[in-house]
Design goal:
The complex is a heterodimer of chains A (about 475) and B (about 350). Helix content of chain A is about 40%, strand content about 20%. Chain A contains 19 helices and 18 strands. The relative contact order of chain A is 0.11. By secondary structure, chain B is of the alpha+beta class. The chains are: A alpha+beta (about 475), B alpha+beta (about 350). Chain A: Its cofactor is FAD. Chain A: Keywords: FAD, Flavoprotein, Oxidoreductase. Chain A: Pfam families: FAD-oxidase_C, FAD_binding_4. Chain A: This is Glycolate oxidase.
């Protein structure tokens, strides 16, 4: 993976830039090389680069002051929520100032009658729900990293989660943001129902990977908690059968809040790790429905009727809170379990649900060709795959082989009508694959949005677009012309 | 002009030296729109429908009614509820982000929109999004196009999420004024009833819709009827009423702000989204005198477009710059605010 050469002029001015930042935002600047190393990577930890400096502001005004200085000094800026990006979304360059939102975690306003909460963007996803659960509400998007990940990062990547089959992803639950543009101007986008006059700028900020502005505050839709929820675990003797069952459930008009899929390698690893008591089978589904107990019974009866048509080897309906917890335990510890036995790379392509059997077969074939095992765990209801490619970081050449296999799997996702990334974002990881999904003109259209918000391409600029495609803009040729 | 393929449409735009205003069914034009019609209804037909994947792809000029009939034949519907008008095309619905009552439950048109193809002001064909449920690959121009009213480009194809048609629907009513209704609707929306519509209509009062499986609807509507003191009734949820006379205004607010706004207005034509949307008719040319609030009001019929309060200057600049980028020759004059088209006259 390549990053552009840092601006040596900026690096040479490091002390002066850090001093200017420290003067504007006292007590918030880190520029000791020993300390900036803590910010050298995010959750894509294979790639690291300590930044020029790190600033940890407390308010929108401080973020604006920082960006004004960086704009003035022509210093690249990398926004960072909690640093949990799996795609390298907050990976720095040596000439960049990292603006970390960790200190901006306050709840600013809670309005139960109008069903929203306004928070600073560094607040963690789970603690948003935590702030309203006592009143019987929750914030719906629930990425696996919800204990750690920040709302600002969720907005940057338009994060999803297990329950978005019913509740949608971040963009569907975001009503407004306060965003600081690279020149330091502060704007509020969105409004009641997420609506504002004119173009849907809120919609384009969400998922723009911190390239258009730094979101400092977010207004989020909160929902009344359902009376209850109950998962069932259904085991099958073939992955393809599990895939066909998912399609049949959706086709029949039942819409569970979540349908999760795990295949045998994943089931085995999580059993050894978490001991959730999963059956020994080729594939399993965890299907969750919500409502009052009789409403849950009604939905599960329908689901059971459909699943029976696919000769499941196991149909386990939770009878208690504890059983529900155990059914989810394996799924929720899947990544940790895989990480214990191997290094792994987690992919994130989305496919049309109807192509699931075809794609699973294709992944198995590619896995054989490359000689690397692939475990599948994913959100089956919405076709968001998470193949985990297992490799050994200490074996020379293994990481490169793993990345090549990953690229092939993602190309397969695009070929069947899907996309490269469903919820993790492009970052640096999938940047160079963008032309497999988009034409040059498609990317040009996206880049001209960045031209409007950040004409000098200073914000998180070496991400999302293939380096060769964004080079003229990043290098300022176009702007100078 | 009525092109029948995307390539023809692109050619027309590429070679045009005059202003164009894209039109689907022409059913929801605002003041100043549609002055130099570019009729998109020739680009018609469903190109892909996968009921088991809950997705449908259709050319922009496909009549909404035709699309809905195809989905209904499979027991499905669009995942959002369009605000229906006789003769609408799906492209027009998307370009207007025209969203009906179900928005309180499943979001607006933009939330069900998975992908778009469009032709920009230079005649370039651009694709964004796709046909899958979760997609964060690149910038979300899908959202930017939804509701853009033909200002950035002409939609040629849209991919939309579908949903199973609920087998049972129940509507509950509580008589009263629009102001009374806000508290009723808020009570319904803040409880575990999974409401799919929360509106108010004159003569009918507060209306709440509950949909789903038979047993579930029975349980929820009984509980909610008791809580609200509501009666079971029938209502037309698909269509937003129109102004009989004067100018039609569309007001967006937080529901808790609605009573204050209602106090400054004549009786509305309708209220929707739990009180977050007020439709009201005012005498032609009259601007409402409203107390400060967190939303905005738009005049959607009459002589000229008007939005109050005026947008923040930075937001206005971003809007104008995006239009300039997608349509540098100012070909699309679609909101009556006609930008300078001097560059065209040479």
């Amino acid at each position: 993976m390549q990053m552009p050469a840092p601006d040596q002029g900026v690096i040479a001015r490091r002390a002066a830039i850090a001093a200017r930042l420290a003067h504007a935002v006292p007590g918030a600047v880190i520029d000791d090389p020993m300390e900036t190393r803590a910010y050298e990577c995010d959750a894509l930890s294979a790639y690291r680069c300590p930044p020029l400096a790190v600033v940890l502001p407390r308010t929108t005004e401080e973020v604006a002051a920082i960006l004004r200085i960086c704009h003035d000094e022509r210093v690249p800026v990398v926004p960072r929520g909690a640093g949990t990006s799996l795609a390298g979304g907050s990976m720095p360059t040596a000439d960049a100032v990292v603006v970390g939102l960790a200190r901006m975690n306050a709840v600013l306003e809670t309005d139960l009658a109008d069903r929203f909460i306004r928070v600073q963007a560094g607040r963690t996803n789970l603690s948003v729900s935590g702030a309203v659960e006592g009143a019987g509400f929750f914030y719906a998007p629930d990425p696996s990293s919800q204990l750690a990940c920040a709302i600002g990062g969720n907005i940057g990547m338009n994060s999803g989660g297990a329950h978005c089959l019913k509740y949608g992803v971040t963009t569907n639950n975001l009503l407004g943001v306060t965003v600081v543009l690279m020149d330091g101007s502060v704007v509020e986008l969105g409004g009641p129902m997420g609506e504002a006059p004119g173009l849907d700028l809120l919609g384009v900020i969400c998922g723009s990977e911190g390239q258009l502005g730094i979101v400092t505050e977010a207004t989020l839709r909160i929902l009344p908690k359902p009376v209850g929820a109950r998962p069932v675990l259904v085991g099958f003797d073939a992955s393809e059968t599990a895939g066909a069952c998912v399609a049949a459930i959706i086709r029949a008009g039942v819409l569970p809040v979540a349908i999760e899929f795990m295949d045998r390698p994943c089931i085995r690893a999580t059993e050894e790790f978490a001991g959730a008591g999963y059956p020994d089978c080729e594939a399993l589904l965890i299907i969750e429905v919500e409502g009052s107990p009789p409403e849950i019974d009604e939905q599960l009866a329908l689901i059971r009727g459909i699943a029976d048509g696919f000769a499941p080897v196991e149909f386990r309906e939770s009878r208690s809170e504890d059983e529900s917890r155990r059914i989810w335990l394996g799924r929720k510890s899947a990544f940790g379990a895989m990480g214990q036995i191997n290094d792994y790379m987690c992919l994130d392509g989305t496919i049309p649900v109807s192509t699931l059997p075809q794609v699973l077969a294709g992944i198995a074939r590619l896995s054989g060709e490359y000689g690397l095992d692939v475990a599948n765990v994913f959100h089956a209801g919405d076709g968001n795959m998470h193949p985990l490619i297992l490799y050994n970081a200490n074996t020379p050449g293994d990481l490169e082989r793993c990345e090549a296999l990953g690229a092939e799997i993602l190309k397969l996702c695009v070929q069947v009508g899907g996309c490269l990334t469903g919820e993790h974002g492009v970052g640096v990881e999938k940047r160079e694959l963008m032309l497999t999904q988009f034409s040059q003109a498609d990317l040009e259209a996206q880049m001209q949005v960045k031209d409007v918000f950040d004409p000098q391409w200073l914000l998180n600029a070496a991400k999302v677009f293939p380096l060769a495609v964004s080079a003229p803009r990043r290098e300022g040729l176009r702007n100078a012309a | 002009m009525r092109p029948e393929t995307e390539a023809e449409l692109a050619e027309i735009i590429r070679t045009s030296r005059a202003t164009l205003s894209p039109i689907g069914g022409g059913t929801r034009l605002r003041p100043g729109e549609g002055v130099a019609p570019l009729d998109v209804s020739g680009l018609s037909g469903i190109t892909l429908y996968e009921p088991a994947a809950l997705t449908v792809v259709a050319r922009a000029g496909t009549p909404l009614a035709e699309l809905q009939a195809a989905l209904a034949a499979e027991g499905q519907m669009l995942a959002f509820e369009p605000d229906e008008r006789e003769g609408s095309t799906i492209g027009g619905v998307v370009a207007a982000n025209a969203s009906g009552a179900r928005r309180v439950q499943v979001g607006a048109c933009r939330d069900a929109l998975l992908g778009v193809r469009f032709v920009d002001g230079q005649g370039e064909v651009i694709a964004n999004g796709g046909r899958v449920m979760k997609n964060v690959t690149g910038y979300d121009l899908v959202k930017l196009m939804a509701g853009s009213r033909g200002q950035l480009g002409v939609l040629t194809e849209v991919a939309l999420k579908t949903a199973p048609k609920p087998p049972v629907t129940a509507t509950l009513a509580v008589p009263g004024t629009a102001t009374d209704a806000v508290a009723v609707l808020t009570q319904a929306l803040t409880g575990p009833y999974d409401i799919s519509g929360a509106a108010w209509l004159p003569g009918q009062g507060a209306l709440v819709r509950i949909e789903g499986l038979e047993g579930s609807v029975a349980i929820r509507s009984k509980a909610l009827a008791e809580k609200l003191g509501a009666e079971v009734t029938q209502a037309d949820w698909a269509t937003v009423p129109r102004a009989a006379s004067g100018d039609l205004w569309r007001i967006i607010c937080r529901p808790s702000e609605a009573p204050r706004l209602l106090a400054a207005l004549p009786q509305p034509i309708a209220m929707d989204w739990g009180g977050a949307l007020i439709w009201v008719a005012l005498p032609a040319g009259e601007t409402p005198n409203l107390p400060a609030w967190s939303g905005h009001a738009s005049r959607v019929t009459g002589d000229a477009p008007l939005t109050i309060p005026a947008p923040n200057p930075v937001v206005s600049r971003l809007n104008a710059s995006l239009r300039e980028r997608f349509d540098p020759r100012a070909i699309f004059a679609s909101d009556g605010t006609c930008r300078q088209t001097s560059r065209l006259s040479s």
